[in-house]
């Protein structure tokens, strides 16, 4: 199927999503909160419930959004490449309605055999019209490069050449993707073994937002414990598929008084980097 290049520069939506405390808890469970029955219960217990900020990364990768903004890519080669999430307001409402407008800003050509990068920018508002957050989200379509489009812009977050200031480890349970997908990303690569193996994966892989949500929990635990509403930015590149059953380690470097740079690696092989060129900021 030919790429629909005329879809670039257009805004789609609004994509409307109602949520309540159960949706917030389900999302946090899909990011590993409470997996040991104790850690980060603030995100999964309705008594004094707090919102895991990475809940904001999820609306733009909802299946309805992906199906609506189908510019003709090969679904089997579609993977999340990275995102830059900026919070304009703290997320505090435990129920409400989110409305997201998504701009397909551009389709960029990495070359034949290297894929296509798609840039989406989503602005999300609450039911009062207040803008809550903006997410610049990138997908790669592995089988759609070489169409003659512009090259992608360069944007790399510097990673310190020294030992991390903090490290937090956590096992990723085998059923993690089965829980996370119930928050709205139903791509078969995360559950269907035959589908995943058809496209070169040994087994279904974990949603990148789930991995990022785990790292977000680790950063808040370490830097601003008990105050997730202080987070103002979370940016990362997704550099390797993560297959549930491994143990990950979030490596965190102090950058200045209100930011850290971080990455997520395999605890048994630090050369296996799942998230990289990543930063978080807070106020």
Quick summary of this structure?
This protein is of the alpha+beta class and 283 residues long.
Question: If strands are numbered along the chain, what order do they take across the biggest sheet?
Answer: 1-3-4-5-2-7-10-9-8-6
Structural class: alpha+beta
Helicity range: 10-25%
What's the N-to-C terminus distance? 46 Å
CATH H-level homologous superfamily name: Hotdog Thioesterase
Give the domain tally. 1
Number of helices: 5
What is the second-level CATH architecture?
Roll
Mean pLDDT: 96
Global outline: globular
List how many beta strands DSSP finds.
10
The CATH topology turns out to be Thiol Ester Dehydrase, Chain A
Largest sheet: 10 strands, antiparallel
CATH class: Alpha Beta
- Portion of residues in beta strands equals 35-45%
What is the C-alpha radius of gyration, as a whole number of Å?
18 Å
Would you list the SSEs in sequence order as H and E? EHHEEEEEHHHEEEE
Spans of at least 5 consecutive residues whose pLDDT stays below 50 are none
What do these coordinates show?
This protein has one domain (5-282): Thiol Ester Dehydrase, Chain A (Roll), CATH 3.10.129. The chain is built from five helices and ten strands, in the order βααβββββαααββββ. It is an alpha+beta fold and 283 residues long. A hairpin with a 6-residue loop joins strand 3 (96-109) and strand 4 (116-125). The protein has a ten-stranded antiparallel sheet with strand order 1-3-4-5-2-7-10-9-8-6.
């Amino acid at each position: 199927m030919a790429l629909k290049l005329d879809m670039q520069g257009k805004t789609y939506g609004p994509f409307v999503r109602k949520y309540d405390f159960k949706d917030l808890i389900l999302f946090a469970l899909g990011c590993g909160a409470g997996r040991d029955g104790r850690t980060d219960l603030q995100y999964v217990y309705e008594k004094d419930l707090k919102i895991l900020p990475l809940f904001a990364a999820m609306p733009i990768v909802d299946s309805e959004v992906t199906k609506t903004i189908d510019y003709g890519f090969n679904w089997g080669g579609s993977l999340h490449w990275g995102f830059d999430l900026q919070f304009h307001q703290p997320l505090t409402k435990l129920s409400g309605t989110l409305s997201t407008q998504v701009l397909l800003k551009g389709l960029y050509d990495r070359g034949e055999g290297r894929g296509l990068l798609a840039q989406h920018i989503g602005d999300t508002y609450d039911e009062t019209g207040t803008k809550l957050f903006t997410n610049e989200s990138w997908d790669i379509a592995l089988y759609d490069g070489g169409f003659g489009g512009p090259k992608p812009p360069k944007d790399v977050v510097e990673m310190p050449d020294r030992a991390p200031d903090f490290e937090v480890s956590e096992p990723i349970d085998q059923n993690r993707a089965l829980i996370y997908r119930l928050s709205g990303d139903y791509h078969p690569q995360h559950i269907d073994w035959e589908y995943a193996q058809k496209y070169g994966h040994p087994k279904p892989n974990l949603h990148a937002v789930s991995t990022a949500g785990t790292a977000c929990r680790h950063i808040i635990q370490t830097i601003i414990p008990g105050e997730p509403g202080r987070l103002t930015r979370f940016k990362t590149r997704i550099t390797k598929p993560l297959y549930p059953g491994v143990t990950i380690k979030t490596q965190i470097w102090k950058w200045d008084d209100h930011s850290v740079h971080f990455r997520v690696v395999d605890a048994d092989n630090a050369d296996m980097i799942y998230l990289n060129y990543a930063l978080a900021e807070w106020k």
